[in-house]
Amino acid sequence: QSALTQPASVSGSPGQSITISCTGTSSNVGSYNYVSWYQQHPGEAPKLMIFDVSDRPSGVSNRFSGSKSGTTASLTISGLQAEDEADYYCSSYTSSNTLVFGGGTKVTVL
Amino acid sequence: QVQLQQWGAGLLKPSETLSLTCAVYGGSFSSYYWSWIRQPPGKGLEWIGEINHRGSTIYNPSLKSRITISVDTSKNQFSLKLTSVTAADTAVYYCASRQQLPGAYYFDSWGQGALVTVSS
After folding, report:
1. Of B20, B87, B67, B47, which is closest to residue A99 (Cα–Cα)?
2. Count of CB atoms situated within 10 Å of the CB of B11
3. Which end of chain A is more exposed for a tag (fewer CB within 10 A), N or C?
């Protein structure tokens, strides 16, 4: 199964908003509202930030939001902060009853 | 959420079998799917496969021929075996869990990760 497509890097200044895209196909993102997003700081395990396209787990800042249009899901970080600098991965359920991740996006806070 | 603690051999030679185990603390062992996910150095995440408490498995098609995921409900543990490893299998391997609820296709608990290096 092919990985979902994410931009390699996105950057923004503190206080700005950035958006990370995650493009799949009609066999995954396009057919299911089961897209999740993970934040990973260096040397740490990933942390769930968004599930079911736009829901936030308890304890995750409301600066993080998710959306989907067609075969592309997006993660938006508003009011960018230094602590948001990390790698971000999307994931989707697939029609083969498996799960697939994106290649990851490195977010840099300028 | 459950707590996951994993362990296993960190250095393998090509053609050997990778073996990792993950112990589950807290929560109901039968209420989750138990997954393995790996991350090659400097690269992205790859879902390997998962198992439930009954032993039902789903594997990544690209790895299916070399993978066995098993469960020991008496110890609240699950394990991964990957045969015939090559340098391409060098990665940090994570165990993770997702709730056994309709539509819960996300991982809300992760192990600490274990680096497995394949080198002659």
Report:
1. B47
2. 11
3. C
Of A77, A62, A73, B89, residue with least CA distance to B80: B89
Task: Compute the residue count for chain A.
Answer: 110
pLDDT value of position B84 = 97
Six-digit token string for B38: 């790996």
- Phi, psi of B75, rounded to the nearest 5 degrees: -110, 0
Residue A76 has pLDDT above 90, yes or no: yes
Contact list, A1 vs chain B (CB under 8 Å)? 60-62
pLDDT of B19 strictly over 80: yes
**Which candidate, A108, A56, A110, places its Cα nearest to that of A84?**
A108
- Nearest CA to CA, how far is A2 from chain B (Å)? 10
Sign of the dihedral defined by the CA atoms of residues A10, A2, B79, B92, in that order: negative
B79-100 pLDDT per residue, tens: 999 999 999 999 999 999 999 9
Q: Note the pLDDT tens digit of each residue in A30-72.
A: 999 999 999 999 999 999 999 999 999 999 999 999 999 999 9
- For residue B100, the distance in angstroms to the closest alpha carbon of chain A comes to 14
d(CA B24, CA B110): 10
Per-residue pLDDT, A64: 98
Distance, CA of B110 to CA of A36 (rounded, Å)? 15
Q: Is A88 on the interface with B (CB under 8 A)?
A: no
Give percent above pLDDT 90 in chain B: 97
Most B-contacting residue of A40, A98, A101 (CB-CB within 10 A), to test interface:
A98
